[in-house]
Amino acid sequence: MSIKEIELFANDIRRNLVWAIGSKGGGHIGGCLSICDLIAVLYGEVMNYDPNTPNWQERDYLVCSKGHAAPALYAALALKGFFPMEWLKELNRAGTNLPGHSDRKVPGIDATTGSLGQGLSIACGIAHGLKVQGKNQYVFCITGDGENDEGQIWEAAAYASHYHLENLIMFLDWNKKQIDGWNKEVMQLGDLAEKYRAFGWNSSVINGQDIAEIRQSIHKAVDIRNGHPTMILLDTVKGAGISCIEKIENNHCIGVPDSLVKESLEELEAIRMQLKIRYGES
Ligand SMILES: Cc1ncc(C[n+]2csc(CCOP(=O)(O)OP(=O)(O)O)c2C)c(N)n1
Ligand SMILES: [Mg+2]
């Protein structure tokens, strides 16, 4: 996909996730929006997958360790044809095909997550298994910055380094906030890029809302294969891409009434038009 196509895909993901969360009446919209650009790059270009055979043995894997951001993945998976778009309006209801947190029963979801801190360990297990079998696939894992307060994350970080899991690429969504407020008030973790480097990882900091930068950093991480796992710290904004949601200070898990859905969709439509104009289309 070209940068333009990925940007339009990210816009589509945002539109569908707002619609899905809105049809439930609310949800974890802030932490979904901050990773939409990443998800667009992963499913738009980087990852190998087959929507008709979600469990294809040769696929790349994605573990969304911050499982509450599942609606962002679901929107991308629906757009890529893993399941019908109509499923999105059943999000997080009794008996649904799409539980509120990432669930292995959903076509295209590789791990059930939601209890924060566990997903990186699952990703390590998958990556180690692939390495032992001499496979070339990659395992991607998305963690939250608040989630990195969890001790299990750091056990997994040590494990990945010890076993030279160079097929593991982890993203840390540095959106500065968690459920109880700003990270700096809940738990100071200091320089996370330096911490992962000290644990034996390749690490870098990029603008997590810049598709060209995300794309370049992932390609670099895929190519490097120097015996170390890679952590990419995404400097992001909670609620990114929709200003009326971004400006709500506590936008972790909020009510999303029809009026907010309408305002969000209008803004996303305006952004889509601007993208088309910028890239020279009517
Ligand atoms: C073990 C565990 N403790 C608490 C929670 C409740 N919880 C859900 S989301 C969240 C905050 C996560 O913050 P962060 O990782 O920064 O996510 P983001 O900002 O990307 O939404 C918490 C505490 C949980 N899901 N799992
Ligand atoms: Mg956060």
From TrEMBL:
Keywords: Thiamine pyrophosphate. The keyword Secreted does not apply. Residues 10-254 form the Transketolase N-terminal domain. Coiled coil: none annotated. CDD domains: TPP_TK. Its cofactor is thiamine diphosphate. Belongs to the transketolase family. This is Transketolase.
